[in-house]
Amino acid sequence: MNIILYLLGDNTTLPKAEANGLIESYPENKNFSKIYEKDRFYIFACEKFPFERMSMAKIMCEFIAHGENLEEIAKKVAARISGSFRVTSYATGNFKDATLERKFGEMIKGHNENLTVKLENYENEVMCLYSENLYFAGINKDREKFIHRLPLNRPFTVPVTMHPKLARTLVNLARVKEGAQILDPFCGSGAILVEAGLMGMKIFGKDISEYMIHGCRKNLDFYGVQYKNKNLKEGDALKIRKKNFFDAIVTDLPYGRSSFTTNKNLTQLYDKFMITAYNLLKDGKFAVIVSKDGIDYDFYKFKLVEEHFIRVHGGLTRRICVLKKE
């Protein structure tokens, strides 16, 4: 299957890294290959790509063709689809063509008279992304909608809480598929666990605050996330005893006044936690660790695979480290 992603533009590294994390989550993608990569476009071939999991793409399509000749692209689209269709266009630069949707639709139908153009209740939505002299065509795939899970819409929230889009991205960076056992040992109100649970992972959470665990349960229940009560507990993250048990650890380390921790020295806490995390993970698995930029800590025996930075608000920048236990 060939995939085209038009990535979000608000971060230079995270969107592509999320896509690669998803690709690497599935062993059947061992023959993955890149087709085209420039600016925010990422086109590749792989056996399995879960569109519903991807959070940092503005547009996602099953890729058909790209090039300068719109007629040739229309011919390839006409050979791929059947039944009814509509064309949706998206300008990726300053150049706009108000007639493109009608023109491209007519071209497609001209190559296959059995096709029917419908503006509603259509079977295929053909996306045409374009700049001044280049066109990209594919069959549109729906994006995940996060508005219902924004902090202001959760039954329980705290002043500093993670956006569901970022939480989902972090889980995908951990290179896990459905059924994997994933731990957030500083789970707070449960943003990461909600996204992991909705994607089919088995979730485990810990927080030093009973109040936060209560709120986390409220959020999980509200969004219909399945979990076992015994896997979500109040407690010290440094005292979890499940050696070589988890397929992934994804967490936002405590660093602000709204975080609850028994250790005032954050660097010391982080260093101790990295030892704990290493022992909890299975060999070859990943830990995705978020921290405040500027707080350095020891990765212990982990290998740093990739590093990202994302500005949250004001002067706060989060550092995201993807670490592998080898």
Could you explain how this protein is built, in words?
- The chain contains seven helices and 15 strands.
- The chain has helices at residues 14-24, 70-80, 100-111, 164-173, 191-198, 210-222, 266-280; strands spanning 2-7, 33-38, 41-45, 57-67, 84-91, 116-117, 124-130, 135-141, 181-184, 202-207, 232-234, 246-252, 281-292, 303-313, 316-324.
- 39% of the residues are buried.
State the end-to-end distance. 31 Å
Q: What is the CATH architecture assignment of the largest domain?
A: 3-Layer(aba) Sandwich
The helicity comes to: 10-25%
Number of strands: 15
Biggest sheet, spatial arrangement of strands: 2-3-1-4-8-7-5-6
Strand fraction: 25-35%
Q: Low-confidence runs (pLDDT<50, min 5 residues)?
A: 257-263
Radius of gyration: 22 Å
Oligomer: single chain
- Which term fits the overall shape? elongated
Tell me the CATH superfamily of the largest domain.
Answer: Vaccinia Virus protein VP39
Main structural class: alpha/beta
CATH topology of the largest domain: Rossmann fold
Largest sheet: 8 strands, mixed
Q: What pattern of helices and strands is seen along the backbone?
A: EHEEEHEHEEEHEHEHEEHEEE
In total, how many domains does the architecture comprise? Answer: 2
**CATH class annotation of the largest domain:** Alpha Beta
Output mean pLDDT: 94
Number of helices: 7
